[in-house]
Structure formats: C-alpha cells, structure tokens
Design a protein that fits this description.
By secondary structure, the protein is an alpha+beta fold. The protein has helices at 21-25, 46-52, 56-61, 77-91, 95-107, 132-143, 156-162; strands at residues 112-114, 128-130, 147-148, 151-152, 167-168, 178-179, 184-185, 192-195, 201-205, 210-214. The protein starts with 20 loop residues before the first helix and ends in a 10-residue tail after the last strand.
Length: 224
C-alpha cells in the first residue's frame, strides 16, 4: 500500500511496507484503530479523528502497529479510506468520478449523493447515499456474477474473492464470523452482506436468489 504514498518517506518502515492492498481490503492492516468503543463524533473515535486530521492518509498510515498485516481483523474506516486513495492514485481521478464511469452509469444509477471533505475528496468510509433500488442493483450485480444486461461490469473472479473468507472475526459483530473484501461473509455458503453503522444493508442470498436492500432514516454525523 505504501508504494502508492511515496511522499511519506518517513513511514516506509519494514513493518509498514508489509501492508498489502488485500490487507486493507479485508480490514487486517494491523494498524491500531478503534471506532467501536466510542461513538462517532467523539474525538477519540478513530474515524472521527481521521476526519478531523489535516492529512487523513498520514493519520491512518502512522497509527501504531497492533498486529502483523493479514493476521487480525479490526473494523476500520481508515482501511477503507486507504483503498479509496489507492483507486484514485491508480486511476488518476476522483473516486466518485471513477465509480460513475465504471459502476453507476453501467447500472443505470442516476440519483446518488457522495458527501465529501472540504477539499472535495469523497468520504469513502461513510459518505455515499443511494436509493434502496440502486443499493439492490449492487446485490443483483453480485447475484449475476458481475454481469448487467449482458455486459460484464465487474470481473467474476473479483466477486468470488470479495465474498470469500479473507479474515476470521473474533468479536462477531452482526453475528458474522468472517469478512471478505468489504463484505461480511459466512463460513462456506449462505448470504453475504454489506452493513452500515445505522443498520442500512444490502443482503444477498445466492441459494434462494434473493436480494434485500434497506436504508436508514438517520441523517446525522457518520450516516452511510
């Protein structure tokens, strides 16, 4: 991951250089993070502190090393922000523009809102608002092996990897034991789910070919 942030030369330590893209995708970066014990909006909540930092990416990447990369799951909006930054640096465009090009437009998603930081950076960890029918389209996209109206929008290999077990979870939030790449997943087969902090979700059950999407009415700080 740090190869995408050459400006942070002082952070290029042997420990941090071991953090791979797959580790931040599966929230196993090993960087110290806590957005569970204190509510969002509390300055001691890690995501809130990241939002307030003058350099958000440095804030995340300079956290103390709490575990070896890939070894321990820790829910982290900071890891998701790093994923977004890598996408922006690799594609040389804003995350919201890239998503519009490769996802929203192909799926026919016309009405969406992406909250940004004051500098215009999309808040990847909690800033996207979608209508329920458009959230459901992402579930259907996964149900249809990445295809939409005959076109391959997302590679099937990525869908399989992102909904496969990439990390074991000890505290089992939402009742799940495992995490994929930004999805809560079961052990072997069964529904996989994307869940927001205020219980908005996209629930996909390939066995019954069912997709359920639900939004949250909460519009306060940190709503997804």
């Amino acid at each position: 991951v740090l190869s995408y942030f050459p400006e942070y030369r002082d952070l290029q330590t042997s420990e941090r250089l071991r953090i791979r893209l797959r580790d931040v995708l599966s929230m196993t970066s090993g960087l110290e993070w806590d957005e569970d014990s204190r509510p969002y909006g509390n300055p001691e909540n890690s995501e809130t502190a990241m939002d307030a930092a003058s350099d958000r990416y440095r804030f995340v990447l300079s956290r103390p090393i709490a575990a070896a990369p890939g070894e321990r799951f820790r829910y982290s909006g900071g890891d998701t922000m790093l994923v977004a930054a890598v996408i922006e640096r690799a594609t040389k465009q804003r995350l919201s523009k890239y998503a519009e090009q490769v996802l929203f437009r192909p799926l026919g998603i016309e009405h969406h809102e992406w909250i940004t930081y004051p500098d215009g950076t999309p808040i990847a960890a909690s800033g996207l608002r979608l209508l329920p029918r458009d959230m459901a389209k992402f579930g259907l996209l996964y149900m249809q092996r990445g295809q939409w109206r005959g076109a391959q929008v997302v590679p099937e290999a990525w869908l399989q990897a992102s909904t496969s077990v990439q990390a074991k979870i000890s505290d089992r939030p939402f009742g799940f034991q495992n995490y994929g790449y930004q999805w809560w997943v079961p052990d072997l087969s069964g529904p996989f789910t994307a869940i927001g902090v205020y219980n908005q979700f996209v629930w996909v059950d390939p066995a019954t070919r069912t997709v359920i999407a639900k939004t949250s009415a909460f519009r306060g700080y940190g709503a997804d």
